[in-house]
Design goal:
443 residues, alpha/beta, three-stranded antiparallel sheet, 10 helices
């Protein structure tokens, strides 16, 4: 009887095969990972990357002459290589930062790197807001190896400034470069010093997650060993040398050979195991924590359109020698994106118009309230005055004026009654005009 796994077909539903489907789909699509290396020149950054992934082309960097390095600032260089192992393809992109920490004044030299990381987040946000969301190329930086000079025996102000400003944007993994220049006791002392200073300055480095309880014992032990080994003290080499009758990757000195794959000599194998076993976790942290923080900050800014501000432009432009050049038909936005941008612009205009109408209506209501208050104050003043002229308000203009009492007085009583009509005091109450009749009675 055919079976799925170890169970007969008539005893299972079959959804236990879903992980295999996801596995086949992922293997067919391949994986992407972007690794950044930061540190001053001469610490073996390119050599270590070539040793980790066994790709010589990742370490082919030529050191420029001193005369060319003097006017330079921090540059960003990227190299991509396709690595295939047992039918699994990995598109690895290495971002190098030559010039970092090599100048006399290294103030704000981290800003070029921070700007590059933000640009990659911004590009991903634009791609997510576009029409073709199925074929998005993830160029975000998932991990950053920060190389620490072993001769400093701790963090320098430049190291603290860099890690404090970028720990909320990228997963930072501190690495002690060229650890073969230190003894075992010096390496252990430096690790404790670095961890203490990192905690004092409230720097968040990448934290290796704990293994699940249902994992096998070997993986749990390996994971705990990786957690206790940070920061990693490493040595890089792409040359094979002879050691005790066998060829190994390492560095040969007059006093002996430093082997890369020997855990008693350095943490090279531990760093390689960390980057491989926790590659998916670093991608998830980048997307769920760092990218979401950037996205929330961008979308909360005022005057930020859903397609983002740059998507409202009709064409891409680039500056070359002070001249703005059109990049051609291939870089222009599609007609659908233009129509969507025009609709967004129209909505913004209508919203502004509605806001102006609301302000105008509020102003008119305020004027009416002021008119009511002024009319009521005039009426109260007229009724409370003790002058010889007493104003008696008349009914509305539609009703006839009251007829005065003309009954004749008795003999010997001389008096006269003068009637005076007052039509000069008018007030606007609810949009109607009213007049008042008054009479003067002598004392």
């Amino acid at each position: 009887m055919p079976s799925i796994g170890s169970e007969p077909v008539d005893q299972v539903v079959g959804f236990s095969n879903l992980p295999n489907q996801y596995h086949r789909k992922s293997v067919k699509k391949g994986f992407e990972f972007t690794l950044m290396v930061v540190g001053e020149s001469g610490l073996g950054k390119s050599t270590l990357i070539s040793s980790l992934f066994r790709k010589e082309e990742l370490g082919q960097n030529q050191t420029p002459p001193v005369a060319k390095k003097i006017p330079e600032t921090v540059q960003i260089q990227t190299k991509s290589v396709l690595i295939e192992e047992k039918s699994v393809k990995l598109r690895l992109t290495v971002v190098d930062t030559p010039g970092f920490g090599d100048m006399l004044d290294n103030t704000d030299c981290y800003k070029a790197i921070s700007k590059y990381i933000d640009e990659r987040f911004e590009q991903y946000l634009r791609d997510e807001s576009g029409l073709n969301r199925r074929n998005i190329t993830d160029t975000r930086v998932h991990c950053c190896f920060y190389f620490i000079n072993p001769s400093c025996h701790g963090l320098r102000p430049l190291d603290v400034e860099f890690m404090k400003n970028l720990c909320n944007k990228v997963n930072i993994v501190p690495v002690i470069a060229k650890s073969d220049t230190l003894t075992k006791s010096e390496v252990a002392t430096m690790k404790r010093q670095l961890l203490q200073e990192i905690e004092e300055h409230h720097i968040r480095i990448y934290s290796i997650p704990d293994a699940e309880s249902d994992e096998d014992e070997e993986y749990i032990t390996q994971n705990k060993e990786l957690q206790s080994s940070m920061p990693f003290a490493v040595v890089g080499s792409t040359v094979e040398v002879e050691s005790r009758g066998r060829m190994v990757r390492g560095r040969k000195y007059p006093w002996g050979v430093v082997e890369l794959d020997n855990p008693d000599h350095c943490d090279f194998r531990k760093l390689q195991a960390m980057i491989i076993t926790h590659m998916q976790d670093m991608q998830e942290v980048t997307h769920d924590v760092h990218y979401e923080s950037f996205r929330a900050k961008k979308l909360s800014q005022p005057n930020n359109d859903p397609l983002y501000q740059s998507s409202c432009r009709g064409r891409h432009v680039e500056k070359h020698k002070g001249t703005v050049l059109d990049t051609g038909e291939g870089s222009r936005f599609s007609q659908d994106e233009k129509k969507l941008a025009e609709k967004d612009k129209m909505l913004v205009e209508k919203e502004n118009e509605l806001k102006r109408m609301q302000e105008k209506l509020a102003k008119m209501q305020q004027e009416v309230e002021d008119a009511k208050k002024s009319t009521s104050s005039l009426a109260s003043v007229g009724s409370g005055s003790n002058s010889s002229s007493v104003l008696v308000p008349a009914p509305p203009s539609s009703a006839p004026p009251p007829i005065p009492n003309t009954k004749p007085m008795g003999s010997g009583y001389s008096s006269s009654i003068n009637y005076t009509s007052s039509f000069n005091r008018t007030g606007l109450v609810g949009g109607t005009t009213s007049s008042a009749m008054g009479k003067t009675v002598p004392k």
